[in-house]
Design a protein that fits this description.
The protein is mostly helical. Helix content is 28%, strand content 0%. The chain folds into 2 domains: 72 residues, no CATH class; 144 residues, no CATH class. It starts with 121 loop residues before the first helix and ends in an 8-residue tail after the last helix. This is Hypp4511 protein.
């Protein structure tokens, strides 16, 4: 595991978006002639035995190697804008909670061969929308607002930030998924109340997967 601040020394792929980043280096056999700055990077390692778990701090770079047959689970926590701790004092923290009762974002479904990995955290997507409303002092989130965010954050730098009709049609398609009442706008409260599945659909439409998974979506099986 490596803290995020050392990213400039890890020969990372050019990835402007959040989510699944990766390095061009062979992590099992780092070429110190080609990447001498790696010698300056502090790192931590751990060996997990059956039943163990490990907490990886937010945005830490990490690589996992399994030996032999194994089954592992990764749980990524949501970056909520606000945390409601009103029931913390009375909650029974020793009570067992099954994973089936935990709200998850990107998961396998029966029959899936490829995991939904490499997409933006859907709560991050929600926060981007809410931040835009707050920064611009807006009381309505409209397709026009979404088009600005799409142009600024989703298009390549080489593309003109003035959206053409093809891009606007795409924006309207995304907004249609969000605007269930077809009013033509969403309030901040409605954005906060959007369910996870709707946000996942929007994320799929706006930001395709990237990184090693995204580059091999058509040919890679995750078993």
């Amino acid at each position: 595991m490596i803290p995020n601040k050392y990213g400039d020394k890890l020969d990372l792929a050019d990835n402007k978006k959040s989510g699944s980043g990766f390095t061009h280096m062979n992590v099992d056999k780092v070429d110190l002639v080609k990447n001498p700055e790696v010698l300056e990077v502090p790192w931590t390692w751990a060996t997990l035995q059956p039943g163990d778990c490990i907490f990886i701090p937010s945005r830490y770079f990490h690589q996992v190697r399994s030996y032999g047959r194994s089954v592992a689970a990764t749980i990524m926590w949501d970056p909520f804008r606000e945390f409601n701790d009103s029931d913390c004092a009375t909650r029974d923290i020793d009570k067992y909670t099954a994973l089936s009762d935990v709200r998850l974002q990107w998961t396998y479904k029966k029959g899936d061969k490829v995991i939904d990995m490499g997409y933006m955290n859907v709560e991050t997507m929600r926060n981007i929308f809410l931040d835009e409303m707050e920064d611009e002092e807006l009381d309505k989130f409209t397709p026009e607002v979404l088009s600005i965010l799409y142009a600024h954050n989703m298009l390549d730098e080489e593309e003109d930030e003035q959206l053409g009709e093809e891009h606007m049609e795409y924006v309207r398609k995304v907004f249609f998924r969000m605007d269930k009442d077809q009013k033509g706008y969403l309030t901040g409260e409605e954005l906060r109340g959007l369910d996870i599945e709707t946000l996942k659909l929007v994320t799929h439409l706006i930001e395709p997967a990237y990184g090693p998974i995204g580059e091999n979506m058509g040919s890679r099986d995750e078993l």
